[in-house]
Amino acid sequence: MTSLQKNIDHYMELKGIKMYSHLLRAIALKLGIKSQDAYDFANREKANFSKMLKGERPLKYEYIIPLEKIFGVSLARMMDEDSYKFPVEKEMVPYIKGFRYYAYLDNKDLYEKELATLLSKEGKSILHEMDEFGKTFLDYVVEYKAVNGVRFLHDFYKIRLRFWTNQFETEPKGIFWIHDTAIEFCRMVANMGDLKLFNDIYDSYCMFASNGFYLPQILYSQDDFYEIVMDHEYLFNDLFDIKTYKYEFGPSGKRKQGRDGMSFSSINPVINGCLNYALKHLDKYKKQAQEILKFGIEHNARVKEGLTLKPEDVYIDEIGGLRNIRNNDVVDIAIEANVKDIKDNEINKLISELPKFNEPYWRR
Questions:
Q1: 297-353, pLDDT tens digit by residue?
Q2: H or E segment at 261?
Q3: Distance in angstroms (rounded) separating the CA atoms of residues 325 and 195
Q4: Confidence category of residue 205, pLDDT binned at 50, 70, 90
Q5: pLDDT at residue 115 in the model
Q6: Exposure string over 334-351, b if 16+ CB within 10 A, otherwise e
Q7: Is the pLDDT of residue 237 over 70?
Q8: Cα–Cα distance between 257 and 116 in angstroms, integer?
Q9: Using only C-alpha atoms, what is the Rg of the chain?
Q10: Is the peptide bond before 172 cis (omega within 30 degrees of 0)?
Q11: Where in the chain is the domain with CATH 1.10.260?
């Protein structure tokens, strides 16, 4: 008899549940299955459930939360009563299959007092590991809309999008892998309405400073990301603020190509992505397109007037970045409309009034 089967039997006895078919009916109701259909569900799943308890096949993921609700304990404890005892020695590997439990409860104190203290046998946080379903804690934060989990990851681990892989890096050093829910997580963070939190996690200035060229696969190049920004007024308004940003090329004390880093002041680097997406969907985002273009007419003129380089020494890149053609350093960000064949006279007039910059020779 496996530990899971033994403990399930124990908790069934405590709850007065006499048969697996009765337990399966209770699971069905927790899954939202109608009462009259719960019996069919139990009969259909009884043989499979027995094999799951015997370890002959994995426990179905959708059963986890219903079982935790029915018995009032986590799946980890159902499988191992000692699972939540903190390790005394590094060789003691704590049970790491409770990510969904913490995300489901979304309790700030539990995150800080329990989850943050759990270590792997190497003495590292288990949060950078995956559970038996190949998921990280971040995946469950998205699944259960665990807003306290987002703040926990931000406050304790300084989570930030590692844009070139669409994964998240943390401090202390580590990576949070997120699978098919990157946009859902971004939308969830945006819905929290905290500008600093969003910008800390999604640092588009870092992407712009360290990247320097357009990568269509990164989150900052996705239509869904532009929609999120334009659908949230506080994020859209932030596109126009001029901020000073310093990007360090490498660890302190090390130099890359003779420089420690670069500093530049600019509007938000994703503004042109938002503009060109809006121009493709004027039925929904014409107002936003107008705002950006009207701003751009004055902004581009100010940028041109303030250039310390000769006009021929500056080019505009794929995302509107102005760069020194000699060393590729960032100079500023200008507004550029790249969408052709727009059938809107008002929009076309605004585009025609935008002060223009040189394109690089490879785009001419």
A1: 999 999 999 988 888 888 888 888 888 888 877 788 999 999 989 999 999 999 999
A2: strand 261-266
A3: 34
A4: confident
A5: 85
A6: bbbbeeeeeeeeebeebb
A7: yes
A8: 39
A9: 27
A10: yes
A11: 1-83
What are the residues facing 200 on neighbouring strands? none
Which residue stretches of the chain are H helix? 3-15, 20-30, 35-53, 64-71, 75-79, 99-105, 108-113, 137-143, 147-157, 182-191, 195-201, 204-211, 223-231, 233-238, 271-280, 282-306, 345-352
pLDDT score for 122: 63
Task: Note the pLDDT of residue 123.
Answer: 67
Q: How far apart are CA 265 and CA 302, in angstroms?
A: 13
Neighbours of 26 (CB within 10 A): 20
Question: In 81-203, which ranges are continuous DSSP H helix?
Answer: 99-105, 108-113, 137-143, 147-157, 182-191, 195-201
CA dist., res. 214 & res. 163, Å (int)? 12
- Do residues 335 and 300 make contact, with C-beta atoms less than 8 angstroms apart? yes
Owner of token pair 């489901």: 104
| Fold adopted by 1-83 | 434 Repressor (Amino-terminal Domain) (1.10.260)
Provide the β-strand partners of residue 263.
246
Give me the mean pLDDT over the 199-227 stretch.
83
Contacts of 3 (CB under 8 A, 6+ apart): 79, 80
Q: Measured between alpha carbons, how far is 288 from 298 in angstroms, rounded to an integer?
A: 16
**C-alpha distances in Å from residue 134, one per residue of 95, 137, 322:** 15, 10, 42
Angle between helices 282-306 and 271-280 (to 10 degrees): 140
**CB 300: neighbour CB atoms within 10 A?**
23
Task: Give the pLDDT score at 264.
Answer: 78
State residue 361's pLDDT score: 60
